[in-house]
Write a structure and sequence with these properties.
2 domains, Nucleotidyltransferase, domain 5, alpha/beta
Length: 238
C-alpha cells in the first residue's frame, strides 16, 4: 500500500548552493513542521519570501542533529512511500543535502504542465494554481506547512483529472504520475523576456540565436532548471 507524503521546504535561497531551514510534511492525519539552523545565514531576499529570520533560528539545531531527522529519513525513504512536492527537483536537491533520498516522488508542477498540453494556463506556480483552480484551503503562502496544505488539494485535483481523462484506477494514476514526474517536461511556451507568450517552436524559426543564448544562461546558472535545459536542447537538437 503506497503512502502519500506531501512535503515542502523553505530554504536560504533558490540555488544549488542553498540549504534547508524549514521542512513540513503531511501524511494521512499526521502533520509535521520544523525549523532548523542552516550552515549559512539566511539572506534578506529569502526572508522576504518565507519570513523566516536568522533570529528565529537562534538555538535551533541543524537538521542532521535534530531529533526528527532519523524519523523523516526513514519515512521518506521507505519503499512504499511516495513523496509529493511542487517543483520537486528543487526540494529533492535540498533534502539530498540532508542525506534523504526518496525512492518514489511526484512533482505536481510537471503534472500540471502535462495535463495542460495546449498551454492554456498562464503560470504554474503553486499559489497561482491555488487561486486559478479555486482550491478550498486555508493556508499561509510561502510557509512550508501552508504550502503543503495547498499542495495536497492540488494533488487531489490533478489525480482526479488524470483518472477521469485517461480512465485509470487510482493506483494506475499514481503510478503514471510517478512516471511523468521522473523525467523533465518539454515546455511549449516562453513566459518571459522579449519573446514572452510565443511558443518555443515559433522562436526557433524566427530567432534561434535567442534560444542558444537562453540555453547558455540556463547551463551557467546555479538555479535548478532541468525542464528548460531539456526543452532547449530538444528544440536545438543538442
Amino acid at each position: 500500500m503506497q503512502k502519500i507524503i506531501f512535503f515542502d521546504t523553505e530554504t536560504t535561497g533558490n540555488t544549488e548552493k542553498d540549504f534547508l531551514c524549514q521542512i513540513a510534511y503531511k501524511t494521512g492525519d499526521e502533520n509535521f513542521n520544523g525549523l532548523y539552523k542552516p550552515p549559512v545565514k539566511i539572506p534578506p531576499e529569502a526572508s522576504a519570501v518565507h519570513h523566516i529570520t536568522n533570529k528565529m533560528l537562534e538555538g535551533k539545531p541543524a537538521f542532521s542533529e535534530s531529533s526528527n531527522s532519523k524519523k523523516i529519513k526513514e519515512l521518506f525513504e521507505d519503499e512504499n512511500s511516495v513523496v509529493v512536492a511542487h517543483n520537486a527537483t528543487f526540494d529533492l536537491m535540498i533534502i539530498k543535502k540532508e542525506n534523504i533520498i526518496p525512492k518514489n516522488f511526484i512533482c505536481t508542477l510537471r503534472l500540471a504542465r502535462h495535463l495542460d498540453p495546449e498551454g492554456k494556463i498562464e503560470k504554474y506556480n503553486l499559489q497561482y494554481l491555488r487561486y486559478l483552480l479555486d482550491l478550498d484551503v486555508e493556508a499561509t503562502a510561502h510557509d512550508a506547512l501552508g504550502d503543503v496544505l495547498v499542495l495536497e488539494k492540488l494533488f487531489e485535483r490533478l489525480k482526479t483529472k488524470m483518472t477521469e481523462s485517461e480512465n485509470l484506477t487510482e493506483e494506475q494514476a499514481i503510478n503514471k504520475m510517478i512516471e511523468i514526474s521522473s523525467h523533465p517536461s518539454l515546455l511549449r511556451h516562453i513566459p518571459f523576456g522579449k519573446h514572452n507568450g510565443k511558443t518555443v517552436e515559433e522562436v526557433l524559426r524566427v530567432d534561434p540565436g535567442y534560444l542558444e543564448w537562453l540555453l547558455k544562461q540556463k547551463l551557467e546558472s546555479d538555479q535548478i532548471d532541468e525542464d528548460w535545459i531539456y526543452t532547449l536542447k530538444y528544440y536545438l537538437n543538442k
